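REQUEST ID: PR-0412
SUBMITTED BY: lab tech R.K.
PRIORITY: routine
TASK: structure prediction, single protein chain
INPUT:
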Amino acid sequence: MPRFTAQARTRLAHAVAAVTRRDFGAIEKVAHELHTLAGEAGLLGLIAIVPIARDGEIMARQLCATQTDEDAPSLLAILDRLAAAVERVEVAPQVPTESA
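STATUS: complete
OUTPUT:
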């Protein structure tokens, strides 16, 4: 999980920076990164993260299409929720595996 959370934090930091700057070219990449993050979370069984990342992907694509300031706060709010969900993964106790 440490690798997932580290990569997620990096992706989210870049996403917040792109949205804050209203860098629509970078926000298009943000949509792709959020899609990837949702897929990785799903593979790892982190089901609480998947719908938030998908919502972020949809909102990022919408922001790229509209390029209006009205959509940016919504995406920033989703990114904030996603960052909080990633932090909860980091602090969640690891379940020991049964050794044979």
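NOTES: Helices lie at 2-21, 24-43, 49-66, 72-91.
REVIEWED BY: pending
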